[in-house]
Amino acid sequence: MRLLHTSDWHLGRSFHRVSLLDAQRAFLDHLVATVRAERVDAVLVAGDVYDRAVPPLAAVELFDDALHRLADLGVPTVMISGNHDSARRLGVGAGLIQRAGIHLRTDPAGCGTPVVLADAHGDVAFYGLPYLEPALVRDTLGAPAASHAAVLGAAMDRVRADLAARPAGTRAVVLAHAFVTGGTPSDSERDISVGGVGSVPAALFDGVHYAALGHLHGCQTLSPRVRYSGSPLAYSFSEADHRKSMWLADLAADGTVTAERVDCPVPRPLARIRGHLEDLLADPALERHEDAWVEATLTDPVRPRDPMARLARRFPHTVSLLFEPDRAPGDPLLSYARRLHGRTDRQIAEDFVAHVRGGQGPDAAERAVLTAALDAVRVTDTVREVAR
């Protein structure tokens, strides 16, 4: 059975205030063309269909058009909700849409109920595990703790129990939206950590033949049977070096998987340039970036006059301008933002405690209180977004 694995469409998202709707439309055209040309048997969409819980109308229309085109091809599509989606909104009408071959899996309670498709070698059971917010789904799944590993483990227990009751030789595919240990994140992914831990072990997917993952925006192979497709477009400059693609995966009769990447259209390349303004404007080696979306980091000791306007004359698609003046490492004027770069909210909070107490950081009990408070804020924000 030939599968096309994709995820993280983020329909409705912009790139530094530049609309990406045309680029997302081009990607969906490419997806439909790939399904037709490669004779795909099933399309898998592993979450984050939309960029936010209440997407703009243009994004909803784009999604609606994609569903109609996939249904017209007669190729089954299985998709799950991600942490950016409103599971309830995305799942509206799922029962009716299923009649057209579009299988939306947004309810955590249905983790153990697969979409069953067949090829010449027998049945293939597709289990859709939507994004599982630990504090919200722990009781539903009967998980022993409110952690990502616990709730995903409980969901996979349901998958394995259902699979064990099916005829011998039934192959199993899981769609999941999670941060699996060993994956490499990007700046454009929303933090889903709980208790300071956001990742889950790949071993949770033992017992199935292929895990089609979403959430991380870089295409990655954690093992031949556990893969991220990544996002079809770059959504931050941290993805400047990504090769955006989908997985075309062939599931053999014995459950082994072979896969190849299908490149996605690139609306405009991304470039990060750094240096003194005059050097950036004059360097001939930067000519190749003149048609790219540019993030420029200026290192001039004194902020130049009208830097954005001057950059835009050479690089008309400059969308991000940063200032990091050249300073000695111990210079007290080194920016606060630079000192915090790459640190988590928990690390920043713990550093603050140490700062106000003369270098004495939080003890284990205080660290637990800080972690619980940060988790509570994140869960409250999630609940509010889902309720909108």
TrEMBL record:
GO terms for biological process: DNA recombination; DNA replication. Residues 1-90 form the Calcineurin-like phosphoesterase domain. GO terms for molecular function: 3'-5' exonuclease activity; endonuclease activity. Residues 267-355 form the Nuclease SbcCD subunit D C-terminal domain. Keywords: DNA recombination, DNA replication, Endonuclease, Exonuclease, Hydrolase, Nuclease. InterPro entries: Calcineurin-like_PHP, DNA_Repair-Maintenance_Comp, Metallo-depent_PP-like, Mre11_N, SbcD, SbcD_C. SbcCD cleaves DNA hairpin structures. These structures can inhibit DNA replication and are intermediates in certain DNA recombination reactions. The complex acts as a 3'->5' double strand exonuclease that can open hairpins. It also has a 5' single-strand endonuclease activity. Belongs to the SbcD family. Heterodimer of SbcC and SbcD. This is Nuclease SbcCD subunit D. It comes from Streptomyces mashuensis. The gene is sbcD.
